């Protein structure tokens, strides 16, 4: 049905079919991409900064990510044209988990790594060639725990207290249980660390520290090891690879760009709010061709027959009305346009259902005729 609605838009070229998980993949994120929710977040940040006098250089964001230390990145492989079947690359195969907790500052620098390995005790071999200011912790499965969450905030305080320009530090975080404990909160209060938790399922919009480049870079390292004949990646290999990729990912430019893109430093809610229309509306991005088509559609007297044609005329009218203050006419135009789009989408749904019913009816008739 979703593919039928896409086809009803009359796009040229036709859009790609939706994936099998398209409904649930972004449903929670879409529900939280409400301008009111995002605006409330930026209001909270502004009020907190004003109340405690937090300076730009005292704003931090931390994020954690888990690595299956023997899994390579997804990549394209060049193979012989006469190969039968799908080509794959060899994976070292160790799926032991490691958790890396990273923290960045709005000025463009990052804290030393806090890494959690699976195990019961520390091994001296882990520390060979490792930066002296990195912290290595252990847990049964390589995941973080409430206690390790407290250990991390102590690590944070150790490396940021002396660099505080004002009085308070602002730490932006997500809602994971390991940093929502009374011990975590009390330590922050005792050390003038203000924590702000982002709204649920909004990290893709509001989190300055994006861990995806880290995971991609590490995956490429594992893939290269496999090509060199290393078929078992252990903790020592992980730490060595992570030491190589970290300075490449966490450059001053990349870190500052993360804070800027999420509207935190410099403060700019519109950096995020202006993108919500695209994120919430299933319409394709507007192009120069669309603009020209919109003007042509408005000048013609033909009645729109597809959702795309309606959208073209609506964009044309909105451009004309933007130069004027909000009026009952502009509001009515938007309402009429939305109503027309809903009507066409409903018609597309009915047409698709009708097509399926006719096909089934024809199949039943053929079945009965064969039985006679």
Describe this structure in words.
There is one protein chain. By secondary structure, the protein is of the alpha/beta class. It has two domains: 33-72 and 89-276, Nucleotidyltransferase, domain 5 (2-Layer Sandwich), CATH 3.30.420; 288-371. It has helices spanning 2-7, 22-25, 27-32, 35-52, 146-160, 182-190, 203-206, 212-227, 235-249, 252-261, 270-273, 276-280, 288-299, 307-321, 328-371, and strands spanning 59-68, 97-105, 114-118, 135-139, 169-173, 193-197. It has a six-stranded mixed sheet with strand order 4-3-2-1-5-6, sandwiched between helices. Helix 8 packs across helix 9, helix 13 (288-299) packs across helix 14 (307-321) and helix 14 runs antiparallel to helix 15 (328-371). The two termini are 35 Å apart.
CATH structural class of the largest domain: Alpha Beta
Number of continuous helical runs: 15
- Residue share in helix: 40-55%
In the CATH hierarchy, what is the architecture of the largest domain at level 2?
2-Layer Sandwich
What is the 3D form?
extended
CATH topology of the largest domain: Nucleotidyltransferase, domain 5
User: Largest sheet, order of strands side by side?
Assistant: 4-3-2-1-5-6
Number of E-state strands? 6
Tell me the structural class: alpha/beta
In this structure, how is the largest beta sheet organized?
Answer: 6 strands, mixed
Order of helices and strands: HHHHEEEEHEHEHHHHHHHHH
Distance between the termini: 35 Å
The rounded Rg comes to 27 Å
Strand content: 5-15%
Uncertain segments:
74-81, 278-283
What is the residue-mean pLDDT, rounded to a whole number?
A: 81
How many domains make up the coordinates?
Answer: 2
Organism: Alternaria alternata (Alternaria rot fungus)
GO molecular function: DNA binding
Domain DDE-1: 95-235
Pfam family, one: DDE_1
């Amino acid at each position: 049905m979703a593919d039928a609605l896409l086809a009803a838009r009359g796009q040229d070229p036709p859009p790609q079919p939706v994936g099998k998980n398209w409904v649930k993949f972004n449903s929670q994120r879409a529900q939280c991409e409400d301008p009111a929710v995002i605006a409330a977040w930026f209001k909270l940040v502004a009020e907190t900064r004003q109340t405690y006098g937090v300076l730009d250089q005292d704003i931090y964001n931390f994020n954690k990510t888990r690595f299956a230390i023997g899994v390579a990145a997804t990549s394209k492989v060049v193979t012989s044209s006469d190969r039968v079947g799908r080509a794959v690359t060899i994976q070292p195969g160790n799926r032991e988990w490691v958790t890396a907790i990273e923290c960045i500052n709005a000025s463009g620098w990052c804290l030393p790594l806090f890494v959690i390995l699976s195990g019961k005790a520390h091994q001296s071999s882990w520390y060979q060639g490792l930066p002296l200011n990195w912290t290595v912790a252990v847990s049964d499965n390589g995941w973080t725990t409430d206690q390790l969450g407290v250990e991390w905030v102590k690590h944070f305080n150790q490396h940021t207290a002396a660099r505080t320009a004002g009085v308070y530090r602002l730490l932006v975080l997500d809602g994971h249980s390991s940093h929502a404990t009374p011990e975590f909160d009390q330590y922050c209060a005792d050390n003038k660390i203000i924590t702000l938790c982002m709204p649920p399922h909004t990290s893709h919009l509001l989190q300055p520290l994006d861990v995806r480049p880290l995971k991609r870079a590490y995956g490429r390292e594992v893939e290269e090891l496999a090509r060199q004949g290393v078929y078992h990646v252990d903790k020592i290999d992980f730490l060595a690879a992570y030491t190589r990729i970290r300075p490449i990912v966490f450059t001053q430019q990349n870190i500052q760009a993360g804070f800027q893109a999420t509207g935190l430093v410099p403060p700019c809610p519109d950096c995020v709010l202006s993108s919500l229309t695209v994120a919430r509306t299933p319409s394709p991005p507007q192009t120069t061709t669309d603009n020209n088509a919109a003007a042509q559609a408005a000048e013609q007297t033909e009645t729109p027959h597809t959702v795309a044609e309606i959208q073209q005329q609506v964009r044309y009218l909105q451009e004309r009305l933007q130069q004027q203050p909000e009026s009952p006419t502009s509001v009515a135009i938007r309402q009429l346009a939305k109503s027309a789009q809903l009507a066409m989408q409903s018609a597309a749904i009915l047409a698709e259902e009708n097509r399926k019913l006719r096909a089934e009816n024809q199949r039943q008739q053929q079945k009965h005729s064969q039985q006679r």
